[in-house]
Amino acid sequence: MASGTGTAATFSSNGAPAGQVEIACNVADDKNHAASADTGVTIVAPPPPALHVQELCKVSFARDTKRPTRVDNEAKACLDQIALELKRLPDAKVVIVADSNAQEKQIAAKQEKVAVRHKHSKVEHFDRQRAVNVMDYLANDQGIDSSRIVVASGSGNDQNAQNYLLPAGATFADDAQGINVVDETTVRPEGRKPLPVRHHKKATANQQ
Questions:
Q1: Average model confidence (pLDDT) across the chain
Q2: What's the rounded Cα separation, in Å, for the pair 40 and 176?
Q3: Is 86 within 8 Å of 146 (Cβ atoms)?
Q4: For residue 89, what are the contacts with CB-CB under 8 A and spacing of at least 6?
Q5: What residues have CB less than 8 Å from 159, skipping those under 6 apart?
Q6: pTM confidence score
Q7: pLDDT at residue number 53
Q8: Which residues pair with 40 in a beta bridge?
Q9: CA 99, CA 105: separation in Å to the nearest integer?
Q10: Residues 6+ apart with CB under 8 A from 169
């Protein structure tokens, strides 16, 4: 629709389909002078809204001090909800960003120094292990294709793993900074094995 007063006119494309539109301009004054001209404009569809990462529930690894990288039952409840969301959105991915606290970072740093001199020394990166353990649960317990799971370590000073939903077409780097993607093939998942049960011998009658 075109409208205007005086020497100016505007064209509104509201409701018009995308494509070429021809506009006929006719003017006349009170002295019976008239003129006409034709022009055209191209209507372009607006770009789709930008897709962003959605923050999901967070998993804490601070409850089990003996196994601080294990996916416990409380974490399982969170991950079960994430699995349902991924099954509802088959084109989406999940990004797992796990952290380690200052003490754990110090342990890993010391182990890395030893590993420089001793090739087969173990280096325990708590953040990477947590991320891989979460991935292992989603893939093996919930049947989520591992290609839809991205594991990363963050820069936080805690024992959490924050989970993010990555819609198809979104880029995680646009919404999160300070993370390092983990090569999950270099970290062996630990699984959800229970602690071994210790059996105590009963005291004999001869013991005082």
A1: 86
A2: 44
A3: no
A4: 165, 167
A5: 60, 61, 62, 68, 99, 100, 101, 104, 126, 130
A6: 0.71
A7: 87
A8: 22
A9: 9
A10: 51
> Per-domain residue ranges for the chain?
54-186
Which residues have CB under 8 Å from 121's CB, separation 6+?
A: 111, 114, 115
Alpha helices in the chain (DSSP H): 73-88, 102-117, 126-136
% residues pLDDT > 90 (the chain): 52
Contact indicator for 139, 132 with CB cutoff of 8 Å: no
Instruction: Determine the average pLDDT of the residues in 83-92.
Output: 96
Amino acid at 146: S
What do you get for the CA distance between the two ends of the chain, in Å? 103
Record the tokens describing residue 52, joined without a space. 């962003």
Q: What is the CATH T-level fold of the domain 54-186, as seen in this structure? A: 60s Ribosomal Protein L30; Chain: A; (3.30.1330)
- Residue 92 corresponds to which tokens in the numbers above? 């989406």
Token pair belonging to 162:
């924050």
Give dist(CA 167, CA 111) in Å, integer: 38
Task: Provide the pairing of β-strand 19-28 with 160-166.
Answer: unpaired
Query: How far apart, in Å, are the Cα atoms of 190 and each of 74, 84, 126?
Result: 17, 23, 12
For 146-195, what is each residue's pLDDT tens digit? Answer: 999 999 999 999 999 999 999 998 887 755 667 889 998 999 999 777 65
Buried b (16+ CB within 10 A) or exposed e, 104-130: beeebeeeeeeeeeeeeeeeebbbbbb
Whether 133 contacts 78, CB under 8 Å: no
Q: Number of H helices and number of E strands within the chain?
A: 3, 9
